[in-house]
DNA sequence: ACAAAATTTTACCATATGGTCAAACTTTAC
DNA sequence: GTAAAGTTTGACCATATGGTAAAATTTTGT
């Protein structure tokens, strides 16, 4: 089949065929799912192909039949992740009420942290290492932030919310919401809630609502 | 000399001598400084002894003369770090004014992020991997947080500040302040400030002052 | 059913890495 | 100055790891 992506190779000895087979789709998913798990737990360098293969229940060479390198798997995961990750920011609507738009944004980001903690950690790992693989994508983020910051500045100009630095507002929201996924190990110990700890996100939502509503209302 | 710590060995073939030599102190410092740099940049598993030795300007076996294993270096760094790291929290004073105590806490944490970004990243890396090496220390943190949370609850009972969940208050402060060190790569791109970007921390301090003063005042 | 294409496996390889050993060299205490 | 203690080095080793080659097996289209 030889798929279009340069990082994904399959049937390396076959001529160019356009579409991906059933097995290919299934196995690629399987591998990505396993890799997400492993990368999120050990970071890129801390993860081995063998680990990922084992988690996926296939052999290493078989894994390497679908993804040419460890980097290729990582890249694919990061690419996917960023789409999901930026969605809540894209949704912010200039026409809406500032405070409730921001409230909703925080809620959505908190839900992502709750529902996709592995993705959050994958991202955190990447940024911590200096974001070596996603400089381009980060520039898209910059543009998006620029655009949404303009909206916030407008809201401030119209006296619909308290004056503040929009970018630092975003930083604070990212930091806190992702903290619940990334620093989970610390939070668990401090809260002393063993096992479940579902209430965590409810409590966090309440706290953040209060902080930001009072903090940003005109 | 065979020092007390089980992880640090020097002069392995000599009998027990109590005090550390000049060279030993110097070299250990040199190694720890180099290791902090390397670990903060690549994480524990991403760092190699050779890298650390090169950064320190000594040979690998020489490094291993001072620290028996890579883990031993890491352990020592984490131990040191936690002391510095928790100091601002310890300082919070039940007798002070709630809002200014919290303001000061945020300032101090922000200063740590600015002045010790490598330590912050070392810590973040450790927690991200599930805090495998610092479960005990995390329990000390839990006790400290419990103690300081009681102070906050008192303040709230005395109507000196708005009601809120003290632990989530701490989480938010940790998250945001450390974010400036840990997510530096992202922040740089989003702010578009190449090179310096000193103003960053000033802007952050202003933003956070506003957010928390308005968010927590009665 | 059968050939072509796709998939999987077995056996490898080169390099990187954590760590050891014993000999050579330096520093310190007298 | 000298001997003991402490330090440094070069040569090594075992294992882990990313990745490859080619043969064997399975799937697919007809």
Summarize the structure.
The structure is a homodimer of 218-residue chains. Helices cover 72% and strands 0% of the residues of chain A.
Walk me through the structure.
The structure is a homodimer of 218-residue chains. Chain A has helices at 22-46, 49-56, 60-66, 70-91, 98-115, 117-128, 135-157, 166-182, 184-191, 199-216. Chain A is mostly helical. In chain A, helix 4 (70-91) packs across helix 6 (117-128), helix 5 (98-115) runs antiparallel to helix 10 (199-216) and helix 6 packs across helix 8 (166-182). Mean pLDDT of chain A is 90; it is low at 1-18. At the A-B interface, helix 1, helix 6, helix 7, helix 8 and helix 9 of A face helix 1, helix 6, helix 7, helix 8 and helix 9 of B. Chain A binds a DNA duplex (30 and 30 nucleotides) through helix 1 and helix 3.
Tags for this entry?
homodimer, 72% helix, DNA-binding
Strand content of chain A: under 5%
Largest sheet of chain A: none
Provide the succession of SSEs of chain A: HHHHHHHHHH
Approximate shape of chain A = globular
**Total strand count of chain A, please?**
0
Mean pLDDT over the residues of chain A? 90
Cα Rg of chain A: 20 Å
Query: Count of helices of chain A?
Result: 10
Query: Most extensive interface: pair and counts?
Result: A-B, 56 and 56 residues
- Separation, N- and C-terminal Cα atoms of chain A: 59 Å
Q: Class by helix and strand content of chain A?
A: mainly alpha
Oligomer: homodimer
Query: Low-confidence stretches of chain A at least 5 residues in length (pLDDT < 50)?
Result: 1-18
- The percent range for helix content of chain A is over 70%
């Amino acid at each position: 089949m030889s798929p279009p992506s340069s990082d994904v190779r399959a049937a390396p000895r076959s001529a160019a065929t356009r579409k991906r087979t059933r097995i290919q789709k299934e196995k690629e998913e399987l591998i990505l799912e396993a890799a997400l798990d492993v990368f999120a737990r050990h970071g890129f360098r801390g993860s081995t192909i063998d680990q990922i293969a084992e988690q996926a229940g296939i052999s290493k060479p078989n894994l390497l039949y679908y993804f040419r390198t460890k980097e290729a798997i990582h890249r694919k995961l990061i690419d996917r992740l960023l789409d999901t990750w930026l969605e809540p920011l894209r949704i912010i609507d200039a026409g809406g009420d500032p405070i409730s738009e921001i409230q909703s944004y925080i809620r959505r980001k908190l839900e992502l942290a709750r529902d996709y903690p592995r993705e959050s950690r994958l991202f955190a790992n990447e940024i911590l290492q200096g974001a070596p693989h996603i400089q381009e994508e980060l520039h898209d983020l910059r543009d998006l932030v620029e655009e949404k910051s303009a909206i916030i500045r407008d809201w401030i100009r119209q006296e619909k919310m308290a004056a503040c630095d929009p970018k630092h507002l975003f930083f604070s929201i990212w930091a806190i919401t992702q903290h619940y996924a990334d620093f989970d190990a610390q939070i668990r110990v401090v809260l002393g809630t063993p096992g479940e700890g579902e209430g965590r996100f409810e409590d966090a939502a309440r706290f953040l609502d209060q902080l930001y509503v009072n903090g940003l209302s005109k």
